[in-house]
Q: What sequence folds into this?
């Protein structure tokens, strides 16, 4: 039982670290956003003497960069919330689903997701989550 609590504590800390890394990686699409804004405002047309590109390309870059940033930050927030849930031993199913989703964030999320799944499927860990939810109700 004490070992399970220690594993959950470590998993919560690792979830926080991966959430910070995912948040930082979510800033990379800002390059697409900047290129799109420069295209739409006409700043890229001044750099070459050819015919200007249609604004649709700029709007595509803005939409793509913005969507990728929103998805990345959403993922980072969900991983952070899963870490909080692990620390407080609440929302078992959410933690398990986020462990599976985190596996797509290679390599750190894959390692974290696999380790979280291994810990969360233990019957003794399920009991820890069950005791916490039944005591609160």
A:
């Amino acid at each position: 039982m004490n070992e399970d609590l220690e594993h959950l504590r470590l998993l919560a800390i690792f979830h926080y670290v991966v959430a910070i890394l995912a948040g930082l990686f979510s800033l990379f699409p800002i390059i697409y956003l900047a290129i799109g804004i420069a295209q739409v405002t006409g700043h890229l047309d001044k750099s070459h003497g050819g015919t200007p590109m249609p604004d649709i390309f700029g709007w595509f870059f803005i939409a793509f960069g913005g969507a990728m940033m929103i998805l990345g930050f959403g993922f980072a927030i969900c991983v952070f919330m899963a870490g909080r849930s692990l620390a407080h031993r609440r929302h078992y199913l959410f933690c398990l689903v986020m462990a599976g989703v985190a596996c797509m964030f290679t390599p750190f999320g894959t390692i974290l997701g696999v380790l979280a799944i291994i810990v969360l499927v233990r019957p003794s860990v399920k009991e820890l989550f069950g005791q916490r939810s039944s005591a609160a109700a």
